[in-house]
UniProtKB/TrEMBL annotation, chain A:
It holds the Pfam family ABC2_membrane_4. This is ABC transporter permease subunit. The keyword Transmembrane applies. It comes from Actinomadura rayongensis. It comes from the Bacteria. Keywords: Membrane, Transmembrane, Transmembrane helix. The chain crosses the membrane at residues 53-73, 94-120, 132-153, 165-187, 207-226. The keyword Transmembrane helix applies.
UniProtKB/TrEMBL annotation, chain B:
The chain crosses the membrane at residues 47-70, 82-102, 122-154, 166-190, 196-215, 227-249, 261-283. It comes from Actinomadura rayongensis. It comes from the Bacteria. This is ABC transporter permease. The keyword Membrane applies. Keywords: Membrane, Transmembrane, Transmembrane helix.
Length: 238, 292
């Protein structure tokens, strides 16, 4: 960990109007939760739908994508990363610091609001809120390193991440059960499924398979990112 | 005693034909259309747009194949529904390519170079917008054409109905291209940092659609059909669907649409306002960038 790199990364992520973009997504979830609660639409079916489709299915991957790629992608693109890489700091430290910043942002803007929305919608019924909080947490820990590694590997990281999160996980996951097995979203839902007694939560992957896969995604993403950053060369812009 | 003179050092004047402003705008338009597809750029700029275009037409080909194999005309997808079924692909396309047009010049501070030529900000911006709309029209209309031609080959019954639906769906595709392109470009020009533009555009499309679908599901569940219909005004794909259903006589594709001819007119007005607003946002941003 390096405090200077962390501070610079926070400034790049939250400076000017960028914090608003990060804030808008969870705010929408919370507003929806409050409105549903106020109008009495917060039965368990709807609540699980909101938490599953909106919190775990949309906001978590989007924020992990924005934060995970945003901490390192733009710097690699415009070559500014050279000023960091030429300092006598191990590249491992550079990547892990940026990863930690990204993870903290995802925690603040996706996991905590998701947990709050769960509490607003369901209270303590059947442990749904803590279960989804745990699912969001493990999901964040798996998505963020994968997307950060992707940003070190490719300039099209955001688009590739979108293709994976939206087309592979959401569209194919619904039609082809095989695609669901290779999906962070389903692994995270498996954790939620194991923690709650509500029958509405259902994952296509068993917990015993999901936990090692989540670990592999988190550690593998970080390791791949470090390996690639070690031998990174900067080519011309675009 | 002033003896200063301007020396004629023999440069020749240009007195050939001048190509004029129309030529400038046309060149910018062509350049921007090429930029969307990554033509004239390295291969890695071409990968994404063409991959997404392939993903966009693949279901149409598969569907036509299914019609030909099974000989069942009802398997053919509705032309007007295609862009809505594949709205995720259209959204990713506009999210990944709108920043190419809307923010690359801003990021590298080269806009003043364009305005040192005889082109005003408005035609400049309109050329960019038209290029985005053209690319999106290609994305949405080509699969519909594939479906229609496939239907002709499979000799589906009621050819005249199909022709009418096909032509109206093409109008719908044009409207999709205008609305989606406008929203995408406006959001992209406001977030010039690389990566953020893509994320901001996709967030606008995805979340508006997801929230509207959720509200419509809940409203229908509680038999509040007017709320379910009116929610459609708040997501771009639903907005165009309202126009398609109420003004172009298409079948409903979204979860719910509001009743009556007047709601179609309202949706069309909202589309026009969206396009006008987006052009205004682009104009203001590029004019400001051109002054610095």
């Amino acid at each position: 960990m390096n405090a200077t790199i962390a501070a610079m990364t926070y400034r790049a992520m939250l400076g000017r109007r960028r914090a608003l973009l990060l804030l808008a997504l969870p705010l929408l979830l919370l507003v929806l939760a409050v409105v549903l609660r106020a109008t009495g639409g917060d039965d368990l079916d709807t609540s699980v739908q909101v938490l599953e489709k909106l919190a775990v299915g949309t906001i978590l991957p989007l924020l992990a994508l924005i934060a995970g790629t945003g901490v390192i992608g733009p710097e690699i693109d415009d070559g500014q990363i050279m000023y960091v890489l030429t300092k006598p700091i191990p590249r491992r430290t550079v990547l892990l610091t940026k990863l930690a910043v990204a993870l903290s942002l995802v925690l603040a803007f996706a996991v905590v609001p998701g947990l709050l929305a769960g509490l607003i919608l369901t209270g303590t019924t059947a442990n749904v809120a803590p279960a989804f909080g745990a699912a969001l947490l493990v999901g964040a820990c798996a998505y963020t390193p994968v997307f950060t590694a992707l940003a070190v590997f490719s300039r099209n990281a955001v688009t590739i991440g979108l293709l994976y999160a939206l087309i592979w996980e959401s569209l194919l996951g619904n039609f082809a059960p095989g695609a669901g097995a290779a999906s962070v979203q389903q692994w995270a839902l498996a954790v939620a499924d194991a923690l709650t007694s509500a029958s509405q939560v259902d994952a296509t992957v068993k917990l015993a398979a999901a936990v090692p896969l989540l670990l592999a995604a988190a550690l593998g993403g970080a390791a791949l990112g470090i390996t690639r950053l070690r031998s990174l060369t900067i080519t011309g812009a675009e | 005693m002033s003896t200063s003179t301007i020396h004629d050092i023999g440069y020749r004047r240009y007195d050939g034909p001048r190509l004029g402003r129309g030529y400038l705008v046309r060149s910018l338009y062509v350049h921007n259309v090429r930029a969307v597809w990554g033509l004239g750029r390295p291969a890695r700029a071409k990968v994404m747009p063409f991959l997404l275009a392939a993903v966009m037409v693949a279901p149409a080909f598969m569907d036509v194949g299914a019609v030909l194999l099974t000989d069942r005309a009802e398997v053919l997808m509705r032309y007007s529904a295609y862009a809505i079924y594949l709205q995720v692909v259209v959204s990713i396309f506009v999210a990944s390519q709108a920043p190419v047009l809307a923010s690359r010049e801003l990021r590298f501070h080269v806009v003043p170079l364009y305005f040192s030529r005889p082109i005003a900000p408005l035609p400049f911006v309109l050329a960019k917008f038209a290029a985005m709309v053209t690319a999106l029209l290609t994305m949405t209309a080509v699969p519909v054409v594939v479906l229609y031609v496939g239907g002709l080959i499979a000799k589906v019954p009621h050819p005249l109905t199909h022709l009418r639906e096909f032509l109206l769906a093409l109008v719908g595709c044009a409207l999709f291209a205008l609305v989606i392109g406008a929203l995408g470009m406006a959001v992209a020009v406001l977030t010039p940092r690389r990566g953020f533009g893509v994320a901001a555009v996709i967030a606008v499309f995805l979340l508006s659609s997801a929230v509207v679908l959720l509200v419509q599901n809940i409203a229908e569940f509680r038999t509040n059909f007017s709320l379910a219909g009116n929610a459609g005004y708040f997501a771009p794909f639903n907005l165009v669907d309202i126009v398609q259903v109420r003004l172009l006589g298409a079948e409903r594709t979204a979860e719910a649409v509001p009743d009556g001819f007047i709601s179609g007119v309202l949706a069309l007005l909202l589309c026009a306002a969206l396009v006008g607003g987006a052009v205004a946002v682009l104009y203001r941003r590029f004019r400001k960038a051109g002054l610095s």
